[in-house]
Amino acid sequence: METIPLILRLAFSKGEQRERLVQQVIYVGTPGSDRRRPSLAARGAIFLALLAMPRLASAQAVDVVETPTDIFEPERGAGIPLSGSVLLYNTSVLQGVYDSNIYNVDRNRTNDTSALIQSEFHLTTNLARHELGVRAGVTARKYSDTSAENSTTYHVDGHAHLDLGDRIDVYARGGYLRGIEIRGTAGDQFLTDRPVRFDDKYVEGSIERTGGILEAGLAGSFTRRKYLNASVNDTSIDLSFRDAEIKKATLKASYRLSPVMRLYSEFSVNDVTYDQNPGVSRDSSGYSALAGIHYEVSKLVDVIAAVGYIHQKFDAPGTKAATGLNYRVEATWTPTPKWKLTASGERFVDSSPLSDIPAIVRSDFRLKVQRALGDRMLVEAGAVYTGEDYRGLSGTDRRYTGYGNVQYRITRNISAVVEGGYRKQSGGASGRSYSGASVSAGIRVAL
């Protein structure tokens, strides 16, 4: 009769108390001649114990860590089926934006309000192992008072993913982009009537083998950039001296030392060739090397830290090579299921849009904090630092940006977004210093 109370206690207990009762039920006594066939009640208790055990085991074995982006459920579309294996997705954004300094200048600032419309289409397959797709998107901005700053950018590209088996994947992408240079950045041309426009044609591909003790990947890209003519006071300015071809190749490898640590290495080469070199050649080529660790302390902390060397040689005889420390840092910390912190930093050499500057050495640092307020609301804040070292000029432009936004999912397909930001640049090299603030509000729709 001792078993009946045990059954009742087992049925209504949980946690550590249930675990202790399970051990009591399935306990086998010391060998002896007094063993007998278990009673029906005892067998019922054992049956309940066996039902309880899988829940205990699975609770201990599964290490699931939710993050704010897991808890928060953004708007999402189911896609429009066009055939058995082809789907069309669309995400569109409509925003109203106020900016206190649309030209990013230090004096005689101009503030204005603009309407921003973005729409992105994605046509893709839903095959089990492979993927083929096409993306196309357009962004249009219209100012209420300063119509000269109105702009339209767009892009289209095709992409493919092939799963070759044995942990080998191949990725390919190619397309076309019409973009503009943001006012106040290195690519901006002072005092132009409209933002500077450019066209990119690009192709890139990679092959990777992941999931084993040794992981490796090889990637390459080719970009052809061409600038359209600009104007100052309706006088045309030829920007073809900026046109360039940029080639890059990268080899990555990592070796697993333990379940939580991998050795990480990366070697990259690049080549920049300009169509025109007025006065002095700006063509250059170089390489960078990185070595470090990828340390996944737990599901809560994931860190990649690597240091190395960077070298960029310029064809111009009087231009000193850009050399020095290279680094990359990526870190993610999830202290609680509702909080997530992400930090990153890197250094790289970028092509120069200026006729007398062969290259720009950029340093970027980013910090982002996310807080989920249930499955409908996500609060995010971030800060970005960018240093631009103009080779051939003394000094460095330093740009600081901070922002915060709130995303609220109204329905499954619609979200509201409110954002505010502040930016400041110290023009140590270009001589262009400025600051400005912006506020925006809008809706995002996914189909």
From TrEMBL:
Top-level lineage group = Bacteria
Protein name, UniProt field: Outer membrane beta-barrel protein
Source organism per entry reads Novosphingobium pentaromativorans US6-1
